[in-house]
Amino acid sequence: MQPPRQLDTLGREELLQTTRKLLAEADALSSRISALNEIGLAVNQSLDLAVIERVIAKQAKWLLDFEHCSVCLREGETWRIKTLFGAAEPTEVNLEAMPNLKSVMNTTRPLILRSGAESTFLTGYKSQIIIPLSADSGFLGTINFAAQAENVYTHDDMRIGYMLSLQLASAIRNANVVTELKVIREELRLRVEELDAFSHTIAHDLKSPLSNIMLRSQIAAMRFKDELPAQALDIIASIEQSSQLMNRMIDQLLMLAKLRQTDEQRVVVKMQAAANAAVQRFSAQVEAKAIQITVGELPDAYGQQQWIEEVFANLISNAIKYIGEKNAAPTITITSTMSDGKPRFEVRDNGIGIKPENQGKLFEMFSRVQDTETANIEGIGLGLSIVRRIVKKLQGEVGVESEFGKGTTFWFTLPPAPAPAPSAPVTIPAAAPDSASPVILSTESAQEKP
Q1: What is the pTM of this model?
Q2: Which residues fall within 8 angstroms of residue 319, CB to CB, at 6 or more apart?
Q3: Is 371 inside any structural domain?
Q4: Which domain holds residue 206?
Q5: Any idea what the Cα angle at residue 391 is, between residues 387 and 395, rounded to 5°?
Q6: What is the pLDDT of residues 301-338, one digit of tens each?
Q7: CA distance 208 to 243
Q8: Is 63:160 a contact under the CB 8 Å cutoff?
């Protein structure tokens, strides 16, 4: 082979030919890089491995001249061979024993063959480029290009193939991650369904014996109140009180299970009526503690009537519990404001308040404030978690503002109720010339006048 000649020894014509050749090669390389970028954008727009493979099969011909293109992907302990172009390769071969693939798997470096290899994989193809597919320091497999003639590929071809492999490996990694996440999500969904079914079954199974305990304790207290000593009556009262607490816990567990399982249709809810109905549930407790409850004017909102009433009930119950035994003038106020175009509903009390360090976990399941001020307050820590789940399901937000020793405000937002449709215009017919009296229109309801 003759050594290359220096440019200064070339004649004018030879120099022009060399320049044209270099420009043509640069233009061809630029076109291949542009095609490579387009392929990279296409494969990274999909998270479906089958779609990614079809893109490679369709567009890789713009980059390399080949008669066969395939990918070998590791799937656990096995391999999957996918022929993208040309005659299909056998899928039962042990790829790790193939000399041409074994070298790439061991070194994770591209391999270029110009006169074939003793291998049952890519048999009959003299020219081969085998490039590893690696992402996040993990070996995913190889992409393979082959042609039957010898000495088809150059190192520039291998570099282009390697650049393509980087794009393909990234897309495969993303597709694999999404597939794994879908599997995990489905497993979690099935486990949640099993947990809901279990809790629902347990809750219903506990209802019957618990109702029997409550009934019998009430009967015992009524029938034997004159015969039993005071200590025995206190024990019966404690049994009934604990049974009622357990019954509320079961109801709340059933509510949580129902919230996960259902997606009831949202409608316009009269929030004023929902708040008043919730207040009525606690009339005896409010009267016993001499609490003044004020319900301000509340706008309608978009939600679900029963769920919203449950939200108000849980927040009112919480306010009553933490109103404080030594509160001289206990008050609970339910008001509303607008926040970012959504109605914000507030349940405010002047109770004992919540310390800042205790506010972060209030909406978690079975979370209760543990300090000396609340040690004797009954509860299981499900009410506020139910509030959060309902409000989130209704596409709202929930939060708390509190100052220890001065009171607490729990708030939640909901989507606003749709604006009422404008009234159709009223056409007033012209009065007849001989009318005895003028036509009078009024927006007030018609009333009989004396």
Answers
A1: 0.51
A2: 332, 347, 349, 351, 408, 410
A3: yes
A4: 182-260
A5: 165
A6: 998 888 899 899 999 999 998 898 888 899 999 999 99
A7: 12
A8: yes
